[in-house]
Amino acid sequence: MGHMEDALGESMIIRSTISPSLKYGLQFLGMWPDMTYGIVNRLLFMLSILIMQFFQYHYVFAHFKFNEMQNLVDSLTATLDYSLTIVKLTMLWKNRRVVREILVAMDTDWRECISVDRYLQVMTSKANISYFCSNAMLGLNTIAAILYLLSDYALNKDKSDNITSRSFPIKLTFPFEAEESPAYELLVLTLFLHGILNVFTVTIVNALIFTLVLHASGQIDIICEEFKTLSEEKTPYNGNFEHSIGTLIERHNKVILFSKNLDKLLSFMALMQVFWNTLIICSLEIFFMISFHNEPGFGLVKIVFAYGGITIEIFIFCFAGEYLRLKSKSLADAAYESLWYNMSPTNGKNILFIIMRSQKQLSLTAGGMANLSLEAFASIMKASASYVSVLNAMY
């Protein structure tokens, strides 16, 4: 990506759709191209998560009792969230060649935009949105994670007379005595930092999805602008006009290939996101009903932050799919609104082929079985609301 940064010069601030914070996150996860110790980073990080998962599921199985339903549901939420992180990282690392192709394509697109001001303006606006969204997601998710991880201490402070054991930020079972100082303080700090790191990892993946879709939409906007320019040409039969159409077709094919790589990267990840988030939402709703009837207070705030984070996470996937679909529809509309009927027969047929291809809209899928859209998000939220209504009636 260094060629792109040098070419834009010192006067430009925006050099890529990928924000600096997202770039550092991808480097930390070992996903940035040509990293020296990328494999070591991936192995160490995955090993730490697997160790956490072992102790988390040990806690879940140990408290799999009806009279400990609150502890079980509370622990199950974080446990499933960690499991989802493992799935996401595994899919990213498995498809690292696809990630590399995507990043190289983004680099090429930006270098091609340098010589045309209107192209650069479109991509810069998309990059500004990407920077803002990436930083906002990192900031908000970090605050929510801190409040969630520290909530148990606030709860125990209110019930200090009934405390029989010292709590940890993440519920798990250790094979040794962990509640004596200084081991307890060291473990609390380690678990707290690891929990923040897990949220950071999830946020980086979500920010990457949003950034890639914004980049694809920027390229689609450029094609739409070119169709408007073609319609204003006074001599649609000259060689330059035919060359412009050929460039449009080539750029359109690149967008199609980019979206296919994006779907290949996210398809299984999105399927697991929907499945796992459904389980987590159900767990949070059970925890909510128990806390609402038995222990209203700060515990409800903890559930609200967790529920909000999970909802935003699935919304990002669905919104990305919806946004890409609408942008591909706008491409078909722009091609149809061009003066294709005043062009030469060859150029007119090329435009018609673009219109026909654009009718097969670009999309992101969940395992290739369902398109990610706002309609899918609404269905998930509707099922969630129905589930909580049934729980409230039965409790």
Automatic annotation (TrEMBL):
GO terms for biological process: signal transduction. The keyword Lyase does not apply. It holds the Pfam family 7tm_6. Its main location: membrane. It is a multi-pass membrane protein. GO terms for cellular component: plasma membrane. It comes from Dinoponera quadriceps (South American ant). One of its GO terms (molecular function) is olfactory receptor activity. This is Odorant receptor. Belongs to the insect chemoreceptor superfamily. Heteromeric odorant receptor channel (TC 1.A.69) family.
